[in-house]
Amino acid sequence: MSATPQISVVVPVFNERDNIAPLVHEITAALRDVAEFEIVYVDDHSRDDTLAVLTALKSQVPELRVIQHLRQSGQSTAIRTGVKAARAPWIATLDGDGQNDPADIPKLIAQRANGDDSIKLFAGWRVNRRDSGSKRWASKWANAIRARMLRDDTPDTGCGIKLFERAAFLDLPYFDHMHRYLPALMQRAGWKTVSVPVNHRPRSTGVSKYNNLNRALVGINDLRGVSWLIRRNKITGTREV
Questions:
Q1: Which residues form the Glycosyltransferase 2-like domain (predicted)?
Q2: DSSP 3-state assignment of 2?
Q3: H or E element: which one contains 65?
Q4: Mind listing the domains of the chain with CATH numbers?
């Protein structure tokens, strides 16, 4: 494994034992000739043998690092744990269920190479979602409300595949479920964000950890909180003299 990876791929997982090996091998295949990389899996205290599968896989994949939460803490905390542990200046994130396509990571990297330095987040945009009709409808409704309240000009904030600067992320206010509002939070900090069309795949094994009701109930309070943060924000330009 390189001492100085250019990209750290952070993958939060909870009870995803059957999706781990295929996804890890897809990540390595996508990035092997693109950039020096590491893969940081964060096991959010799974109840199945996710941790054992990850530990065994380390002998086959030298780029793989594994961190375990000692108690279940949620996806946002798992992402932040991985970002804090990451050694690269730029972070790519993927959901651990295999619905995000690692082959899209080089596309995001290419967008960064061609973008200006003020863009700190390249967010995946699932233009052809492979979820149930009820889930797509709920997401469309939630995105419309979020866009109206936050004006973040982002068509899909729920997509797990993203590329962002590590330092910019760690400077954002941290709270549970913050990963759903990264474009708005980055823009609040004075940075630009770009949405990039990406592939989306049906879940092949395991079950979703969310349902439409709990997403909606949590989302209402989160939207109010993020909206308050935006209203109370002050961005001050600085220069060293």
A1: 8-169
A2: coil
A3: strand 64-68
A4: 7-231 (3.90.550.10)
- How far is the C-alpha of 91 from the C-alpha of 39, rounded, in Å? 10
H helix runs in the chain, sequence order: 17-31, 50-57, 75-85, 105-114, 133-150, 166-170, 182-188, 212-231
Tokens for 173? Answer: 């206010």
Record the tokens describing residue 34, joined without a space.
Answer: 């693109």
Contact of 122 with 147, CB cutoff 8 Å = no
The three-class DSSP label of residue 17 is helix
Cα 23 to the center of its chain, rounded Å: 15
Q: What is the pLDDT of residues 138-171, one digit of tens each?
A: 566 666 666 667 878 888 888 999 999 999 999 9
Q: How confident is the model at residue 67 (pLDDT cuts 50, 70, 90)?
A: very high
How far is Cα 108 from Cα 122, in angstroms, rounded to an integer?
6
Angle of helix 50-57 versus helix 17-31 axis, rounded to 10: 30
How many Cα atoms are found within 13 Å in the side-chain-facing hemisphere of 238? 5
Tell me the pLDDT of the chain averaged across its residues.
Answer: 88
* CA gap 93, 77 in Å, rounded: 13
Q: CA 195, CA 162: separation in Å to the nearest integer?
A: 9
